[in-house]
């Protein structure tokens, strides 16, 4: 899937065929989130795709900003037919890509009438404040430091579920509202060799992963939020704090 | 439980722990392992395989870029280092990532000798990691094979200690 630049997509016209307004729940979950992931690294595409699938998103993964625009139908001046508009609930893109950067892609998306409402998340391996500010100012929903973890994606997903369930009209919050910076200390280093039992929130120490029971029951239905599977507020804020502190690599 | 299996199991665990302790792996590898489940039992192997393919490709690119008889394009080398740094970071290949950080600085300084040396180290390092992870997977396969019951049930019971 992610190898050839992207396969699955959901068009709203297809979804309408699934019996909107029927008494029974349609086979396709209309609340199902569709994410477009953009990254020139194949390794990173596979990982982000897995992270998104675990959090029950449908994923289309492409390898460049151009392919993303092509997928969205924004690659030419002509507007796409309204009826065939894609249902894309979030776009998550790497920052550093050859050709078109994630920032340039962000700008193009925000300039489009069809997709400016879609939250765009930027990922970067570099913790550069000016870069982060620039992206947030341009309307990025969030900025994630790589390597991206399940806790980050779960946080995005939970945030998104709230938006998607509201009416299509005013679901998009202003960038200023959705970005908060918390002045909390970052969490302690993840790798410990203690045998403290932890809940299923990351990070797990290698001892826990390799010798204690993995909660694979939870993994199977990680789709709905299960107790303990959401990141703790400290962790989410911690990662944001990590993003904001200069000098942290 | 068969004592041979138990012994192998312990060796397997110790081996993995040593990879962390010696700095070959970091918590991102743990994260990847935690994303694997019965539905995607080959996830880690797949990602690692792609990572090592990346290593071969990028090291090749860097070697070619450094082998120019004329002027070396250090930004080209640097671009490849950046990619390798990214993917090593994503799989938890800690030593490879660390080398890439140094390598990047050497590229920025246009330090030819330094870059060549660093590239050699990167080459050795990713191959070493590959061999060690291969050993790890081989042992896990052996353990699984010793018990003919359902393969993945058994993997969970023995390797992960689930009852």
Automatic annotation (TrEMBL), chain A:
Q: Where is this region: Disordered?
A: 185-249
Q: Check the record and name the PROSITE patterns matching this protein.
A: RESPONSE_REGULATORY
Q: Which SMART domains match?
A: REC
GO biological process terms, alphabetically, are:
cytokinin-activated signaling pathway; phosphorelay signal transduction system; regulation of DNA-templated transcription
Q: What is its main location?
A: nucleus
Indicate what this protein is called per its UniProt record.
Response regulatory domain-containing protein
User: Sorted alphabetically, which SUPFAM superfamilies does this protein's record hold?
Assistant: CheY-like
Subcellular location(s): the record lists: Nucleus
Biased composition of type Low complexity is found at 191-202, 224-233
Write the record's keywords in alphabetical order, separated by commas: Cytokinin signaling pathway, Nucleus, Phosphoprotein, Transcription, Transcription regulation, Two-component regulatory system
Positions carrying 4-aspartylphosphate are 94
Q: Name one GO cellular component term.
A: nucleus
- PANTHER family in alphabetical order: TWO-COMPONENT RESPONSE REGULATOR, TWO-COMPONENT RESPONSE REGULATOR ARR3-RELATED
Family label: Belongs to the ARR family. Type-A subfamily.
Gene3D superfamilies attached to this UniProt entry: 3.40.50.2300
Which organism is this protein's natural source?
A: Eruca vesicaria subsp. sativa
TM stretches of this protein: none
Response regulatory domain spans which residues?
34-161
Task: Name the source's superkingdom.
Answer: Eukaryota
Checking InterPro entries in the record gives: ARR-like, CheY-like_superfamily, Sig_transdc_resp-reg_receiver
Automatic annotation (TrEMBL), chain B:
Keyword list, A-Z:
Acetylation, Cytokinin signaling pathway, Cytoplasm, Nucleus, Phosphoprotein, Two-component regulatory system
| Gene3D superfamilies, sorted | HPT domain
- Looking at the record, the residues that make up the HPt domain are 40-136
Q: Name one GO molecular function term.
A: histidine phosphotransfer kinase activity
Which N-terminal stretch is annotated as signal sequence?
none
- Tell me a GO biological process for this protein: cytokinin-activated signaling pathway
- Localization annotation: Cytoplasm, Cytosol; Nucleus
Which GO terms of the cellular component aspect does the record hold?
cytosol; nucleus
Membrane-crossing residue ranges in chain numbering: none
Q: Name one Pfam family in it.
A: Hpt
Q: Which SUPFAM superfamilies does this entry report, sorted A to Z?
A: Histidine-containing phosphotransfer domain, HPT domain (SSF47226)
Keyword Transmembrane attached: no
> Any idea which residues bear Phosphohistidine here?
82
Domain notes per entry = Histidine-containing phosphotransfer domain (HPt) contains an active histidine that mediates the phosphotransfer.
What is its biological role?
Functions as a two-component phosphorelay mediators between cytokinin sensor histidine kinases and response regulators (B-type ARRs). Plays an important role in propagating cytokinin signal transduction.
State the name under which the record lists this protein: Histidine-containing phosphotransfer protein
